[in-house]
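Notebook, bench 3.
Goal today: get a predicted structure for cysteine-S-conjugate beta-lyase from Candidatus Enterococcus murrayae so we can plan the truncation constructs. The sequence was checked against the plasmid map this morning, with no discrepancies at the termini. Length recorded as 384 residues. Pasting the sequence as submitted so the record is complete.
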Amino acid sequence: MRDKTKLIHGYHAFDDETGASSIPIYQCSTFKQASIKDGQAYTYSRFGNPTRTALEEAVAVLENGKYATAFASGMGAISAVLLSFNQGDHLVMCKSIYGGTFQLVNEVMNRFGIEVTFVDETKLEEWEHAIRPNTRGLYLETPSNPLLSVTDIAGVAAIAKEHHLVTMIDNTFMTPQFQKPLALGVDVVIHSATKFINGHSDVVAGLVVTNDEDWHNQIKLQQKVLGGILGVEDCWLTMRGLKTMGLRMEQSARSAEKISHMLENHPVVQKVHYPGLPSHPGYEVHKRQAISGGAVLSFELASQEAVYTFADALQIPIAAVSLGGVESILSYPVTMSHACVPKEERDKQGVTEGLLRLSVGIEDTEDLIADLEQALAKVQIAVK
């Protein structure tokens, strides 16, 4: 069964009891038990709920995994994974990383005595050299947010296996549609389902997928005891959204590729970050491990003043935090996704005041390009 068919038929997408064409929302906190002497599948919705189970089964199937766990946000999913480590453990992480993950590491995990070393994710030797006797895991995010840098997934997974370490990856940008990390040797896959999996900017959700039963049991425990469960309405909305993910991602990625070429050739744009561009330093690696450049790109203008002029002139993309909706979304990492990262660290990562991130929606490509071009023309006039 191919992916677009899996999105509709690859899991329990229909209600066995009534034949309903979508899984019902089981809006309950508790379940009537047949007997106080015996257990049963569902007892309390923090422990498990049929609507949430259906979503978890669906996402596991899409990632070709055995187990999935749904959380109340992408950060809830990331936190459940990273807080599974113990005091004294050491992790190696990519330096180009989502701001929320950076904040979790530096403001929470360090209080629990979990050490982290950041490396240049594009260099396999840096991953290898950062490993210590107390290292327990390697954490990837590829393509990264917001610079779209690319990590060799299979290469890092091979290093991890040689040293008996767990590998974790944030696969939000690519989704299971374009990149399947479990098949490349990764142990734990994380998604902010808020983004492309749901795809309609009306849900905040996170997912963790694995084939490792021990890791699944640990993540399930974190879900239960920390209470970061995804509500049943949001589970249902996410299942509704993922059914069209294949079509949405194809249109968005097709537009993103054309937009990236236009931006790369525009005199006002200093640099474009998009792994589907042959000029991208990670292009060949990305082509080996993903089937598309994806629907997100970032690009650099000369200054913050140019950024403001450009953003004010745009008419179609909305200016907003987040990404992955049916509408195109323009974000300014300095004041949005990476506002919690100190300026000195942002500068090290390359998150400059001239950097913008564009999540390309499903609008007509020609309309998007025309709008971007007219906004860039305003920048050109302002510069002159």
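Residues 240 and 248 are 13 Å apart (CA to CA). The mean pLDDT is 95.
Flagging this for group meeting.
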